[in-house]
Each structure stands twice: as structure tokens, then as C-alpha cells.
Amino acid sequence: MSTDRESRERELRDLLAGAFQLPPDVAAITGHPTHPADDTAEATHDRDHGRPADPVHPVHPVPEWETSASPEPFTPGPLDPVPFTPKSFTSGSFTPGSPGAGAAPYPPTGALDPADTPGEPVTPLPAERLPRSMALPGRDGELRRTFPAFPARVRGAGGFAETWWGNAWVTALEEGALDAARLARGRTYAGQGYVDAITVTPGLVLAYVHGSRPRPYRVQVRVRTLSDDDWDRFLDAAAERPGHIAALLDKEMPKSLADCGVALLPGPGELEPHCSCPDFGHPCKHAAALCYQMARLLDQDPFVLFLLRGRGERELLDALSRRSAARAARAAQEREPAPLPGVRARDALARRVLPPLPAPLPPPAHPEQPPTYPAAPGGPDPFALDQLATDAAARAHALLTSGRDPVAELTLWQDAVRIAAARPGSGLTAGTRALYSSLASATGRTPAELARAVAAWRQGGFDALGVLEEPWDPPAGRFDRARPLLMAADFPAFRPWRNHLTHPRGHAQLRLGRNGLWYAYESEPGHDDWWPRGTPDLDPVGALTGLGAPGEF
To answer: Tens digit of pLDDT for each residue in 54-70?
Structure first.
């Protein structure tokens, strides 16, 4: 039995000795010899350069997919970002969500990691040989978040963390580490972008870190989650001051919130790294690289720390909102009501003599003119604005002086006629035609009907418009006496119809209004197209005077 086991171990060691040998074409591109490279070689390199060597451990059994020439697809666990299919890659670069651009090249297979060979140039491979990202954000939810890989840092940049909480994470890592050399190599790995996408769940950080072998290492960092009692104390402290909630919404973490008695940030020795590499250092350089990148992630979003401690962002904000509202309600109930000012009933009912109201200010003599509105391309018509402002000022002045708005009782049609009649000028200019077309369309009339109504309004206002549009039957008396008066003034006998008296030739007409005034109209003979003319008059003969002398009729 022992002989069979030793035989299998020997075969396995022989197989692993050439498992990571570079193909000839890759060796030609990178310039590195095609000899096996593993963490044993890294340990030898450390020893030769005077650094403490990473401990070399016995070979452990390797799954079949690690040693097979045609490996089967890797089946991920529930926290793995994405299934990994082995590829023959040696060096390259990647950016978050886009393999092959933006980050530093990976360590070449067949050589030591760049962290162990300072200054050694690394030649990137063509894009088709670069590894793809291993992230799968589609699995994310409230308690699982995947963040794209960080690009390589600019050489000469400062520390990995800029905020005090990010630096606290780095301090916990460095004070709990057992080997400063591995931390230095981890910083190099993180700075050159060897850490792939990072997945964070309660109590666990997971990422794949590229090392000296073709297959990246699976790295986990575990942190203790907070108990329900710890969360209650933290939420009470955060809800106590509104500034805490405002700071969290701005992706800031006040120091006073971290000093509330709940250990949000890990201390030395609380970070528990686990890596699939054969290095048993605490932490190995791959785990250190992940921890340094986590500091950058915490800088950007402190809610990642809360997720790592057991609560998602939405759940945390909802709990803070409920506690803040409950605290405000309790404070309102505990607050004593302020004494209300009061007056004794007999004082309130006592007879009092009120002082007289001040006299109103005298109204202006006439409405003021509105300011001039400049014309602007694509803007409203300045003349129309001026007309509307003038009309509003006139209505306000009438309401102030008489207490009555003369326009309030007008119909839509009557108001449209009034507005069109207020436009100065008698010719149908382009502006007038546009105004008439707009008003006629709004009232369901034609521009010709509006023009005739405007002529009536200018003849006598609201009453003249009623004479134009509403024939009526006047009582006997005034209407009957009009015909003899016209004949006495040498006019021919006019034909009566309701409140109309029409010249026998059909070119002149008088209409009696309900206000007792006579309104003159003209038309082309035989066309029955009557338009208001002249000025209204109590005397029918006087109303026709503006149309010509009696002999011309």
C-alpha cells in the first residue's frame, strides 16, 4: 500500500514538473526560457537575494482538472465570480470589465513574478492571448456585490488608501502580517493590477489574483460579521445625529460613528486570508494584494465595509430611516407643548371702538404704458406682448376706479373681437393677418367674420357688435317714426325688416340698437354684404350723414 502511494506521488511530481512549461511561441515572445516556474522557484529566488524564503510545503493532491492536458470546465462554488476555463496566457493587461487594456502585464509563465525580479521588462502578448475577467455581476444582489478590477496605479502615487477608514484597513493588514517582504510583493501585485474583480458578501471577500502560474489563484479574506446587538448599537448611534446619515449618503464615514462602541473596522489579526497558492504565509502576497485593493474599494464606498460586516446598503438605510423617524416621534411626544397665548372671555366680548381704516390711495388718472419688449429670434411677438400688457393695465385700472371689470362678462368670441379691435391700424398687415387668423381659429370663426365684427366693435363697442349679430323686433314708436323722418329729409322710403331699414337701391341700411341708437351699414348693391360705417346717432338722419348727402342716395 505504501509503495503504491509513493508511486502515485512520484508520478504526480513528474507531471507537475512540466505542467507549466511555456509553449515555444510564447517563450519567443516573452524572451523567457521554457522551464517550470512555481512558488518553489520564488522561494529559491528569495533565498538567493537575501530575503526570507517562503516556506515550501509538501505537494498536496491536485484535482484532475489541474493536471489534465485538456481540462474540463471548472464548476464554480456559490461565491465564485465566474467559471474559469484554463487558457495558455503568459502576460498581458486588463481593465475592469474589458480584458486586455489598461493594467500592467501579468507575470510571465516560466519566470519569477515581476515583484521578485525588479526592473525585468515584461513583453505583453497579443490581445487574443490575454485572460478575460472572471467577474459575473449578474449574480449580484443586496448581499452580494461584484466590483470591477482596479487599473494599475500610476508609479510614484501615494498610499493605497486616502480616507481614514481605508488607512485603518491597511493598518489592520500590516500590523497582523508575519512577513513584511510578502506585504511588499502584495503591494506590487496590487499596484500593477494583478487582482481581478472583487466580490464582497457578508463576512467574505473573494477575488482571483494572477501570480506566476497560468491559472490565477483563488483568494478569500474572511472577517467576522456583527451580531444583531452590535447592529442595534450602531444604528442607534447613527440615528442619534442627522449628520451621520447625511455623511453616509455622501459616501463618508465620520470618526465619531466608528467610535460608537461597535468595532466596524477590523483590528490586527482579524483579517483571515485564504489562498489556493502553496505558500502558507500569513498573508501570502496574493492575499496581501487583495487586501490592498480592498482599501481602495473602501475609499470609494464605505457601504462595502457594512456589507462585509453583514448588512447591505438598502437594508442599512431603511433601518436608519425607521429609527430616525421613531426617534423624532418620541422627541415630539416628550416635548412639553408651549403655552398658547390667550385672552379672557370678558375682554374678548367687551365693546371696543375700532379706529377707522385709512383712506385708500387715489387711483392713477390713467393706466401706465408697459415697458418695451425687445424682439428675439424665435421669441414671442413683442407687439402682441405689448398689446396684452396694455389691455391688462386698462382692465386693472377700470376695476380699481369703478369696481367692475368690463371684460369679465364677455364671451370668448366677444373678447377675441375686442382684442383684435384694440390693435391699431386699419390695414391688414402681415402681423394683423396673423393675429386675426389665430383669434379666428381659437373661436371657430373665419378671419372675414372677425374683420366684420371688429368693424362693428370700433363703431360702437359691445352694443354695436350686438346690432351686427342679433336682429330683434323693436316696439312700436321710435322705429315707426324713423321712416317719415327720413322721407322729410329727402331720403327715399326705406324698406323695414325687424330692426333694419334698408334703402331701396340696397346699398345703405340703418339698424336700431337696443340702446336706442341708429347704426349705419353699407353694401355693394344687390350683394347683401353689410359692413358697419359711420358713428351711431339717436337721429336716423344723423346716422346716415356720414355716408353722403340725401341727393346722393
So the answer is: 433 333 333 333 333 33
